[in-house]
Amino acid sequence: MARIFVAQPTMAGNERRYVLDCLDTNWISSNGKYIGAFEESFAAFCSVRHAVAVNNGTTALHVALVSLGLNPGDEVIVPTVTYIATANAVRYCGATPVLVDVCAETMNINPEDIERKITPRTRGIIPVHLYGHPADMDAINDMARRHGLWVVEDAAEAHGAAVRGKKVGGLGTCATFSFFGNKIITTGEGGMITTDDDDLAASLRLHRGQGVDAHRRYWFLVVGYNYRMTNIQAAIGLAQMEGVEKALADRKTLAAWYNEALADLQDEIILPTEADWARHVYWMYTIFLRKGDGNRRDLVMERLDEADIETRPVFYPMHVLPPYREDTPYPVADLWAQRGINLPTHQGLTRADVDRIAGSLRAALGQP
Ligand SMILES: Cc1ncc(COP(=O)(O)O)c(C=O)c1O
User: Fold this and answer.
1) Pocket test for ligand 1, best of 61, 178, 286 (most atoms within 8 A of CB)
2) Is 90 exceeded by the pLDDT of residue 124?
C-alpha cells in the first residue's frame, strides 16, 4: 500500500503553463506580470485593498513588524502554541515576544489571557489562526483598540478561513500568509501581507525591495531587505488561486469524511471543533488523545508510521523551546500540545484513504 503523506501540494491547473510562460519570455526574476496578477487576485480573495508578495511567510511577518515600527525594547503578545516563525520575527526586530496560553478546543490564543500580559511596552498582538481555525478576532480587536495596539494576523495556515463571514487577511491591521509547499495554496516558498492601510502597504513595498525609492534608481530611503517573490513563484501562485475555492471545498469534504470515520473513537480522541462564528479551513485536521502524555502520543504516531501513514505532532509550545524557554506553566498548552496529532490533510486523499487512516488509528489506540 502506498505511503500516505501528511501534506502534499496539488498542481492540477495552469501552474505548468504559467511557469513555462515565464521561462519562454525570460521573466524569471522578481519583475514580471505574474507578481502583480497574483497580488491582485489574493487581495480580491481576502477582500482587502492591498496584497504584497514576499519570498516566504517568515519574511512576511518580519517586514510587517518593521513597517509597523517595532523597535528593540518593545513587546508583542503571541500565543505560546505556534510555529516558531511568529516569535522569531519579533526577535528579529530586537523586541520581546510575550507568550500567552491558548484555548483547549482550537489551540488559538486565549483572548482572556491577553489583557494581563499587556504592559506599557506592548505594541501589538499577533494572533495565529492555527491549523486553519481562525482566532477570536472580535475579542482580540476589541482589546487592541482599548489599549491602542496594532494586530497582525498570522494567517500562514488559514487561507480562506473566516470570522462571522469575514475572511482572515482583512481582520487586523494587516495579515501575513505562507505559501510553503504544505500550505492550502503554495508557490513552493512564498508569502503575502494583506492590508487595507495605504501607508502601511507603501511601507511594506519599500522595505520588501531594499528600501529603494520608487522614482529614483539606486536611491535607498531606508535600510530595507531583499524579500521579493519571483515571477515564477507568482505564476504558480496565480494558478493556485484559480483552484483555491476547490481546494477549500475539498478540505471541507475531507474533514467531514474524518468526522464520520472517527465518530466511534470519541471515547479515546477529541475531534476538531469549529466555533459557531468561524469558518475552519482544515489546513491540518487535528485530533487530541483524551489521556496520556507525549510519550503515548508519540507511540500512536509511531504505529501509524509503521502502517505507512505520516502524521505530525502538534507544535511544541514556545515556552519549552530553547530560544524562548520559561519555567512559567501554561496549563492548557502544557497538557494539550503533547496530546495533539495532525492527521494527513491534503487534496490527494480519497474516502478509502480516510478509512485506512481511521482503521490504523483504531489499532494504534488499541481499540477493537
Ligand atoms: C503559523 C505560521 N507562521 C509563520 C510561518 C512561516 O512561513 P514560512 O515557512 O513560509 O516562512 C508558518 C509556516 O509554516 C506558520 O505555520
Assistant:
1) 178
2) yes
